[in-house]
Every structure is written in structure tokens, then in C-alpha cells.
Amino acid sequence: MSQKLFIGGLSWDTNDDSLRSAFEAYGEVRDASVVLDRETGRSRGFGFVSFTDPKAAENAMAEMDGRELDGRAVRVNVANERPARGGGGGGGGGRRGGGGDRW
Q1: Of 32, 36, 87, 89, which residue is 20 to 30 A from 24 by alpha carbon distance?
Q2: DSSP assignment letter at 95
Q3: Domain of 58, in residue numbers
Q4: Average pLDDT over residues 38-52
Q5: How many domains does the chain have?
Q6: 97 in any annotated domain
Q7: Is the distance from CB of 23 to CB of 64 less than 8 angstroms?
Q8: Residues in Cβ contact with 7 at an 8 Å cutoff, skipping those fewer than 6 apart
């Protein structure tokens, strides 16, 4: 199992520290972060917690899924790795090459 968990349904009041604190009971937390909106700086309502031990992550998921954190029931799942993004550029800009007239 992965050591990184997705935490959904977070309260707007939950921050990195309170998220870490809630999950430290299950093992050593490597990283805990609430995802923020780039424009407003407010929470987007989800975050991630990474553990140093996969067993701790498994226990945390089993215990915390559906539990209340800062007044909201949270969803806890294994985090899916984000697919690699393209290196920019590339693509044809929507135009098809070669063409003759199309009337």
C-alpha cells in the first residue's frame, strides 16, 4: 500500500498543522498539507498526508475514514499518483497540416 493518503471533505478551518496532528496518532507523519486555491489562498477542501511507514498509513485510513475532523466527516483514501505532465510546447495548436481547400 502507498504511504500517501488523500483526505477529502476537509473543513475550511483545517490547516497543515491540524491535519498533521489528527493523523500523528497512527504513526510518523512525513508530510501533511491542505491544498490551497492559488487565487484566493483558501482551502480547496482536501489535502494529503504521507507516512514514513505503509502500515501506519493503512491504519490511519481504516480509522479516520468517515471520522469527524474540525466538524466535518472526512474521506480517507490511498492517494493516486499524479500522471506526469507534458513538457509544454508540442501539439499542433488544433490545426491540421497539409490541407487543400475545404469548401
Answers
A1: 36
A2: P
A3: 4-78
A4: 96
A5: 1
A6: no
A7: yes
A8: 19, 46, 47, 48, 49, 64, 74, 75, 76
